[in-house]
Amino acid sequence: MVGVVLAAGAGTRMGTPKALVRSPDGVPWPTLAVDALRAGGCAEVVVVLGAAADRARPHVPTAPDVRVVVTEDWAAGPGASLAAGLRALGDEDTACVTLVDLPTLPAAVVRRVLGPGSDRDVLRRAVFGERPGHPVLVGPDHRAALLAAVTADPGDRSAGAWLRRAGVTGVDCADLWDGTDRDRDRDRDRDRDGSERSVPSQLP
Fold first, then answer.
1. Strand partners, 70
2. Helix and strand counts by DSSP (H, E) for the chain
3. Closest CA to 185 of 171, 204, 164, 199
4. N or C: which end of the chain has fewer CB within 10 A?
5. Are 67 and 47 in contact (CB under 8 A)?
6. pTM reported for the whole predicted model
7. Is 182 left (phi over 0), alpha (psi -120 to 50) or beta?
């Protein structure tokens, strides 16, 4: 199982690339994502960087089980970053994909989505009530079709539409976490337990 952290965007609404943001206690967001995936059961993690990649690289843990992939076409859209992450995997790898702007992602959510095991055709994602979220588990049998979808229109959020068409299985994780991302500057200082430091609640 290989974790994939998408951390390539410019973070327009945040005001800075999210790969450069730190938690209130100083931990870089890419490190938090890597830690959650590792603790949740991923044997290896690939972090996809793009905007400000040189500045963001030190925010990624240096370890034998962590790799950095830099996508030069990150500005084309989120599909380009996902494609870069999927292409970095081995033919038999199952991908557990998450986003860097989920700094409060608990390892328990990752473990539940991974489940006790997975076949080559596994396709499931965390859901929070009625709202789909991350992480998303993609078996190798689905990778070519997902790559084709996001490559055809990298500027659109086509991955979600493809997952629905492909019959993704939802794994309810609402009892473990709220799935909230940190999309704007006012969201960045929330604590890891989901409480806030003088910022309003913001759901995607």
1. 49
2. 6, 7
3. 199
4. C
5. yes
6. 0.90
7. beta
Is residue 81 within 8 Å of 157, Cβ to Cβ? no
Q: What's the CA angle centered on 154, arms 153 and 157, to 5 degrees?
A: 90
CA distance 3 to 53: 19
DSSP letter at 17? -
- In this structure, how many other beta carbons lie within 10 angstroms of the beta carbon of residue 125? 20
Residue 48 pairs in a beta bridge with 6, 69
Per-residue pLDDT tens digits of the chain, which is 204 residues long: 999 999 999 998 889 999 999 999 999 999 999 999 999 999 999 999 999 999 999 999 999 999 999 999 999 988 999 999 999 999 999 999 999 999 999 999 999 999 987 899 999 999 999 899 999 999 999 999 999 999 998 876 789 999 999 999 999 999 999 998 877 665 555 544 443 332 222 222
Dist CA 172 CA 126 (whole Å): 6
